[in-house]
Amino acid sequence: MNRVLVLGGGQLGLMMAEAAARLGLVVDRYDPERALLLPGTSDLAVPISWEECQERYPVITVEREAFPEEGLSADLAKSDRCVARGALQVIPDRFTQKSMLDKLGIPTAPWVLLDKEEDLPAAVEQFGGVVVKARSGGYDGRGTWIVGEGGDLSAVPAAELAGKAIIEKKIPFRRELSIVGARSISGETLFYPLTRNWHVDGILRLSLAPANACADLQKPAEQMLKGIMEELDYAGVMAVEFFEVDGQLMVNEIAPRVHNSGHWTHEGADWSQFDLHVHALAGVPLHALNVHGPSAMVNLIGTPFENAWLQHPGVVHWYGKSVRPGRKVGHANLVADTLEGLREGLDAWADVLPEGYQAVLESELKLG
Amino acid sequence: MNRVLVLGGGQLGLMMAEAAARLGLVVDRYDPERALLLPGTSDLAVPISWEECQERYPVITVEREAFPEEGLSADLAKSDRCVARGALQVIPDRFTQKSMLDKLGIPTAPWVLLDKEEDLPAAVEQFGGVVVKARSGGYDGRGTWIVGEGGDLSAVPAAELAGKAIIEKKIPFRRELSIVGARSISGETLFYPLTRNWHVDGILRLSLAPANACADLQKPAEQMLKGIMEELDYAGVMAVEFFEVDGQLMVNEIAPRVHNSGHWTHEGADWSQFDLHVHALAGVPLHALNVHGPSAMVNLIGTPFENAWLQHPGVVHWYGKSVRPGRKVGHANLVADTLEGLREGLDAWADVLPEGYQAVLESELKLG
Ligand SMILES: Nc1ncnc2c1ncn2[C@@H]1O[C@H](COP(=O)(O)OP(=O)(O)OP(=O)(O)O)[C@@H](O)[C@H]1O
Ligand SMILES: Nc1ncnc2c1ncn2[C@@H]1O[C@H](COP(=O)(O)OP(=O)(O)OP(=O)(O)O)[C@@H](O)[C@H]1O
Ligand SMILES: [Mg+2]
Ligand SMILES: [Mg+2]
Ligand SMILES: [Mg+2]
Ligand SMILES: [Mg+2]
Asked: Which of A41, A169, A308, B35 is 20 to 30 A from B290 via CA?
């Protein structure tokens, strides 16, 4: 029995544990904040030591990019057994992440360091619209400031950010897409079809897969992700977020873990990204990925559980977390035979979702 | 958070824990043989006392019918919190089970007690062909002796079985069907469509759902299961196995738990029988059951894991148990848009299954 330990006590690790059970494998979770082990899908927390981890877990993975500087999770993330070890040295800092993309010759939004306040007006001069991003710690759009061409720079705390941010050119993208794929310990790779993503206030709200009109983009996307995984000697699932501009892909950012835009695979494919992640790490050979049909994933954000959700076709995943504004507390997956069928399903769901969802659900979904 | 404890350390409880995680609920498992708690989907066994169980688990359920006579599992199974308490007083003994069916006026194969050796020839005289069944402890056809009309009675250890078995009339059934349904703590009920089952050597080998040509049988089946659940004041999922004779249903036996013939619901419906079971116990309202299409479940029996299985559309569930002849070690689910599609899928699977599967896969499947 190949057991896997995941560092992090959140929903991604929980969904890995759930997926592992399908093939009788075990994923336990180490919660760095509470310094406790959560066995499998349980909340029965137990203390665990470095020695016990060494004995029990030949493979360690992560569900997030950052860990406390000290303590067991930091040690485990740096250990030989952690298959994200290389990625954790590069990805969490946008400076090293963007530098790696440049080195690999992978297209990404042009960027400069924000080292001193004056770098900001200089970048605006050079790029027109800009996006300022904290080098580390940002997610769901936190730590990101978007300033369109001729926009007001005063909202950006440039003095505070000096030495701790990068400035990107603001890209006039047509769509946001992402790819999720896996690399096994022995180097095999496998990819899901490109997914289209809609963000509201920097938070992913809706994903649709397979994204429409991606015939010429799928292979390049796979090649980029494959190159990144190889460069980082990574094993498990990794995701890349793209901008589509002028029919080409440009990398936005990399997530060295299962990714929110891959949650549709729970019901949309025979094997989900969580299955794939666990299999890649436990030595189960990667396998045929049969996609069931046009699939949508609606993120449930800062909203309490509604029984009415259960009355609609589709499946709710609920993380059992306390509800706070802007917090991802679950997701709902819909799969249909046709895009029209999916459209109908989303219309029905719109009636039982809080305000703010209708706009994105009714948006340019036809673009796919 | 409503936690549920399941008594039993096998695959059914494991699949409950897996299902619970979908809605952020927790099912932990108590293994009576090892007297240890298995938290969620993990194999990290921890000791637990009656007091801790009282504190942690408002609801207790079971994944099997029989428990050691003494010890924590026996006490928990008899406690107020165990929603199968009533069923466990009636179902495990075929005498009390059949008596209840007679009392409820539910059709079942005619039967008598085997109290002394001479009861056997007398029953043969009365019934023609007979099936002798140990009153308790039998499963997968163990503890069952089938003797056709004019057949040889000497294979039945009648002296040994005296006082511990019943004798049923052998029913010339056209098909074996089953129904799986749930009753919530508040008395709501919900049912999956009737499933057709094929047994080989007394062990379920293949299920197909929804079974064909059941328009007139679905409602009666639901009524019978509903009546049984109410009689036993049961909560959770329960299954009834039927014989179809002359277009009517006759109960074979009752399983007060999730059931092998409901495993197709893993991929064949939005919510599986394991979801339904946990929801019924955790107070999640029962919900729409959307069936995805013709579904097949192939039991994997006594055969080692094959990587080739992963190369076919369909999903393998593997229990992580050691492989022994006749032991259920996993199941594979296929879902298609049409019966013809399912037929093709099963043909492809036949190539990667051990000998002995082909006959049943190619059998009268067209009957559905
Ligand atoms: N260079 C850019 N040009 C245009 N829009 C951008 C740019 N960079 C980011 N954005 C927009 O801001 C969103 C958030 O940016 P980014 O993905 O870098 O932030 P994040 O907080 O790390 O998000 P996540 O939660 O995905 O980790 C993007 O999805 C995109 O909509
Ligand atoms: N009265 C009967 N007439 C004809 N066949 C019967 C009869 N009783 C049982 N059988 C056959 O034997 C099989 C096993 O019987 P039964 O379901 O009672 O045993 P079991 O060992 O409890 O099985 P399970 O594993 O389903 O609990 C049935 O599925 C059916 O094929
Ligand atoms: Mg990010
Ligand atoms: Mg992002
Ligand atoms: Mg039985
Ligand atoms: Mg039976």
From this structure: A41
Interatomic CA distance for residues B270 and B292, integer angstroms: 7
Among residues A308, A290, A291, which one has the least CA distance to residue A350? A308
Determine the topology of domain B175-361 in CATH: D-amino Acid Aminotransferase; Chain A, domain 1 (3.30.470)
Is-contact B184 B277, C-beta < 8 A?
no
Res A267: pLDDT: 96
CATH assignment of A110-169, given 3.40.50.720, 3.30.1490.20, 3.30.390.30, 3.40.50.10330?
3.30.1490.20
Per residue in B12-71, pLDDT tens? 999 999 999 999 999 999 999 999 999 999 999 999 999 999 999 999 999 999 999 999
Nearest to B14 by CA among B229, B258, B243: B258
Distance A352 CA to ligand 3 centre (A): 29
Q: How many CA atoms lie within 13 A of B261 on its CB side?
A: 30
CA of A252 to the centre of ligand 4 (A): 7
Chain B residues touching residue A330 (CB < 8 angstroms): 24
Instruction: Name which residue sits closest to atom 13 of ligand 1, judged by CA.
Output: A202
Domain boundaries, chain B: 3-82, 110-169, 175-361
Q: How far does residue A253's CA lie from ligand 3's centre (Å)? A: 6
Chain A contacts in chain B segment 43-72 (CB below 8 A): 43-44, 46, 56
Cα gap B67→B136, rounded to integer Å: 12
CA A253 from chain center: how many Å? 9
**CB contact set of B233 (below 8 Å; sequence gap of 6+):** B86
Q: Which ligand places an atom closest to the C-alpha of B148?
A: 2
Average pLDDT over residues A326-334: 96
Q: Do A41 and B23 touch (CB under 8 A)?
A: no
Minimal CA–CA distance to B222: which of B184, B249, B260, B185? B249
Q: Of A197, A192, A216, which is closest to residue A208 (Cα–Cα)?
A: A197
Which residues of A participate in the annotated binding site?
A: 94, 133, 168-171, 176, 199, 252-253
Provide, as residue numbers in chain A, all residues whose Cβ is less than 8 Å from the Cβ of B28. Answer: 42, 44
Say which of B1, B314, B337 has its CB closest to residue A320.
Answer: B1
Q: Do B287 and A270 touch (CB under 8 A)?
A: no
Percentage of chain B exceeding pLDDT 70: 98
User: Peptide bond preceding A157: is omega within 30 degrees of 0, i.e. cis?
Assistant: no
Supply the CATH classification number for the domain B3-82: 3.40.50.20
- Across the interface, whether the CB atoms of B310 and A284 are under 8 A apart is answered yes
Cβ–Cβ gap A320/B270 under 8 Å = no
CB contact under 8 A, B287 and A26: no
Q: Among A109, A81, A86, which Cα is nearest to A238's?
A: A86
Chain B residue numbers with beta carbons less than 8 Å from the beta carbon of A317 are: 22-23
Please name the residue of chain A whose CA is at the shortest distance from the CA of residue B11: A24
CATH class of A175-367: alpha beta
Residue whose pair of structure tokens reads 């890649």 in the numeric block: A280
In this prediction, residue B160 has a pLDDT band, given cuts at 50, 70 and 90, of very high
* pLDDT band, residue B367 (cuts 50/70/90): very low
Q: Is the CB of B81 under 6 A from ligand 2?
A: no
> Cis omega before residue A210 (within 30°)?
yes
* CA distance linking residue B60 with residue B257, whole number of Å: 12
Q: Does A283 touch chain B (CB under 8 A)?
A: no
